[in-house]
Design brief:
Blueprint lengths: L2 E6 L1 H9 L4 E4 L4 H7 L5 E6 L4 E8 L4 E2 L13 E10 L6 E2 L3 H4 L25 E2 L1 H17 L7 H8 L3 E3 L4 E3 L19 H23 L3 E3 L2 H9 L19 H8 L3 E5 L2 E8 L6 H13 L6 E5 L5 H7 L3 H4 L10 E4 L1
Parallel strand pairs: 1-3, 13-14, 14-15
Antiparallel strand pairs: 1-8, 2-6, 3-4, 4-6, 4-7, 5-6, 9-10, 11-12, 12-13
Helix pairs in contact: 6-7, 8-9
């Protein structure tokens, strides 16, 4: 028996349950992986993104197939499906937080790592990633135990924000659904993720560059924002004399979706209550991740007057300049992204 990761949002998990809890679905990009890995008798271990909780175990009872019946959302992107039999299905408040000691300290990918440490979540970003036999056994046993105990895990304030956040944006003539990921998610069709010394070194270099950009802004008299998950490591790279320039919260009056997008930009320079410049550091991620966030920002607030910058090694210059001219970045309401976003090395 093999174990595979199956990601759900709180909303798609509830839809899954309401529609009988007997069909699991994946996006079109997972077609090959689903046809290769959905074998009768194997088990999906279900994980709630945004809440970071283990919510169920499902036995696979059919191979993969395509079906466009709307189950998980409208419209429904999860059209590559297989039939499943519930082993354990927990509602979100009774699902097991991954940070529980019995889980965190037992899983091979988290034990020995400080809870919340940078990079831990990358193991839980790609549906259909194979889970080791040991970790699968640990999780299945914990889920079965919880099904019997039915212990509640009350939502934290962060959980409540995640559950209540606005997922639609009003355009000129209609409301459209949007999703703002917690972090950039480069799903890997191989279904495997490894953490090696090179990746760790690259991450440190990215933080160093992020700190350098933030420090320049502070010395120029700007107030500075970096994402909460990065702040401690960025400040470690800078003299204490500039720490007072860093903001704990953004003094901006935007809707929740826009604020969530802004909060995840690598570095912001602000004058008073206005954003002056935004920087995306592309030393460890694919170049389009920063471009996507910049485009998201301009799509949500097309009249925003802010200078945008992609910071990357010089060897990525050609790639950035090519990617920024994709139609999705060039057909924004206020004109192409390349007119508002520059490359900095």
């Amino acid at each position: 028996m093999n174990y595979y990761l199956n990601l759900f949002t709180p909303e798609t998990w509830i839809s899954f349950y309401k529609h009988g809890a007997d069909v699991s679905g994946f996006r079109e990009r997972h077609r090959t992986l689903a046809y290769d890995r959905c074998h009768v008798g194997d088990v999906f271990l279900c994980y709630l993104v945004r809440l970071s909780r283990w919510c169920g175990a499902l036995e696979i009872v059919s191979g993969a197939y395509e079906d466009r019946t709307e189950i998980f959302s409208k419209p429904d992107p999860f059209i590559i499906r297989c039939r499943v039999r519930p082993i354990v299905v927990l509602d979100p408040e009774h699902s097991i937080p991954i940070f529980e000691d019995e889980i965190w300290s037992s899983l091979s990918e988290t034990k020995g790592i400080e809870k919340g440490a940078h990079g831990w979540a990358k193991y839980y970003r790609g549906s259909l990633r194979k889970i080791s036999q040991h970790d699968g056994d640990v999780l299945l046993a914990a889920l079965k135990k919880q099904a019997g105990a039915n212990r509640p895990y009350p939502f934290s304030e962060r959980d409540k924000r995640q559950l209540s956040r606005k997922l639609v944006v009003r355009s000129v003539d209609r409301e459209v659904s949007v999703e703002v990921p917690e972090e950039d998610e480069e799903l890997q069709d191989s279904g495997t993720v490894t953490m090696d010394q090179e990746a760790t070194t690259d991450t440190r270099e990215s933080i160093r560059i992020q700190a350098k950009v933030a420090g320049i802004g502070a010395k120029m008299g700007f107030r500075v924002w970096v994402p909460r998950n990065d702040r401690a490591r960025v400040l470690e790279c800078l003299p204490t004399s500039v720490h007072s320039s860093f903001l704990d919260s953004l003094p901006l009056n935007y809707d929740d979706t826009t604020l969530r997008t802004i909060e995840q930009i690598d570095v912001l320079w602000l004058k008073g209550r206005a954003m002056a410049r935004a920087f995306e550091i592309e030393h460890t991620t694919a170049v389009y991740s920063g471009l996507l966030r910049m485009a998201d920002l301009l799509a949500l607030q097309p009249n925003m007057d802010i200078r945008l910058h992609i910071v990357a090694p010089d060897e990525k210059r050609d790639k950035v300049l090519k990617e920024i001219k994709r139609p999705v970045f060039s057909l924004l309401d206020r004109g192409p992204l390349y007119e508002r976003c520059t490359f900095v090395t």
